[in-house]
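Many introductory courses stop at the sequence. We go one step further.
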Amino acid sequence: MQALDVGRHSCPPFLNYILVGHTKIKVKGGGQECPPHIRSPRVKLFFMAVGDSTQRFSSRVENYVRYRPGYPPAVLDLLKNECGLSPASVIADIASGTGIFTRMLLENGNRVLGVEPNADMRQAGEEFLRAYSRFTSVTGSAEATTLPDDSVDMVTAAQAAHWFDREKAHREFVRICRPGGWTVLLWNERRVGSTPFLRDYEQLLLEYGTDYQDVRSERTTEQIQTFFAPSRFEVLSFDYHQDFDYAALEGRLLSSSYTPQAGDGRHKPMLSALRRIFDAHQVNDRVRFEYDTRVYYGRLE
């Protein structure tokens, strides 16, 4: 583990280390100066409710299933090495949606309770995961899972916690998790400026997105500490990517809840702009999304 002398901004006391690329970096002590990777606003997360967030994806389920990214295998290794994940662990996967992350846990041999409030997403998840006998679909939310007290060893939420009511979800996770259990929040954060294509794609979202700047998980107003407090937590980041032809890129765009749908006056101009961006940047008829997969984990009190 590499110790890091940090910069000019104070680093929170609950943060122990991060992973930058493949280097594990220790942040020395609470209140120490913080490195740029931690100071970056992209490491902050927010918890907000925009309308009825549980219904935002109802009309986008098909594209969500087909074009949303999975997660790097290193995430599972992290949970095994740092959180004691074993095939015997019982997991509540909150806002499990179509089952993208849930499947990783099931393939590890775990019993997984997929808690999902949106009926369309839940039905898609049930279909996607129907071959897994250790999967149970649960109608519930982060704030009211309907699960019994002390019933799970780990609570996970992938690409979802920014929609939760922070205080209610915290209390619910403490209630359902057995003593010593872990809470794990993770996001695939699309890089917005690492390539010319991604810069142009970001500009398209800023121009045509309905409420993009309000709901994107990369634009945050509160640090993750407010969810875990008063507990300590740690964060690791992994590289990830997806490659798309044009049809898949369009599907990926339309899977996002902030993009105008057919019938909206901005829909056709947005797709025309997307086609121009794709044509300008494609290599062998493909473009690449790059992600930082960030995993935040700790034991809630």
